[in-house]
Amino acid sequence: MVFRRAETDQQREEDENGLNIVSDEEEDDDEGEMTGDLFEPGQLCDVCSKEEGRVGLDPTCRGQYDGDPVFLCFGCLTGALQDAYKSVEGVAIIVESFDEYSDHYYYRLDEMPAYQFVREDVEAISWLLLTIGDNCARCGEQGHFAWLTRENVDEHLPENKALFRKLDGEIEHLCGACAGAALSASYKSLELPLMTVELPRSAMGIMMPTGE
Ligand SMILES: [Zn+2]
Ligand SMILES: [Zn+2]
Questions:
Q1: What is the number of the ligand closest to the CA of 147?
Q2: Ligand closest to the CA atom of residue 54
């Protein structure tokens, strides 16, 4: 299941009015960004140029923000994700990746309704975002993320239906370094040939597993 936007592009621009969004001007030096997939199986890791890339990190979140996509082998994955998550400003909910969902996409809180998340879910996530701020459960640094597992969602990830559950139980809060490490472990455990993952941007939002 993929959380798809149900609006026109024009409505979308209105939604984004006033937010920190890169405009739709194409940058000339982004080779081939709009042609085909960003990452392809068989390409080498952008960091070590030795091993095959397995996880493509797209900090642009499908072209909405600035940043450079980078293809990572499993060996380079943990360090790259830790660096990326340490640099995140604001807070986010992370739903761990599971099963065959090969994409891990970021949705800003304010754009969740446009992607068919129902009102009670958006309200539950808003509330959960407000609880973030305690120390990291694993290392004691400042927490920036709340970590949800597959137990916290309907595994079919239905659109237009409430999909979050058990949000009043124990929820782990993580700092950037520990979130990066936890994500790396989760991506490696799935052993999918290729995963495309994004990064929380802007002030508040949620990382959701998705894919066909
Ligand atoms: Zn590498
Ligand atoms: Zn930590």
A1: 2
A2: 1
DSSP conformational letter for 110: G
Measure 209 CA to ligand 2 centroid, in angstroms: 22
Ligand nearest to the CA of 75: 1
Q: How many whole angstroms from 39 Cα to the centroid of ligand 1?
A: 14
Give 161 Cα–ligand 1 centroid separation in angstroms: 39
Considering every ligand atom shown, identify the ligand nearest to the alpha carbon of residue 50 and give its number: 1
**What's the pLDDT tens digit per position in 80-94?**
999 999 999 999 999
Average pLDDT over residues 88-115: 96
| 142 phi and psi angles, rounded to 5 deg | -60, 125
pTM: 0.85
d(CA 104, CA 179) in angstroms, rounded, equals 14
d(CA 114, CA 117): 7
Distance 148 CA to ligand 1 centre (A): 28
Query: Which residues lie below 8 Å from residue 203, measured CB to CB, with a gap of 6+?
Result: 89, 90, 91
The answer to whether 139 touches 175, Cβ cutoff 8 Å, is yes
Alpha helix stretches (DSSP H) within the chain? 9-15, 74-86, 119-131, 176-190
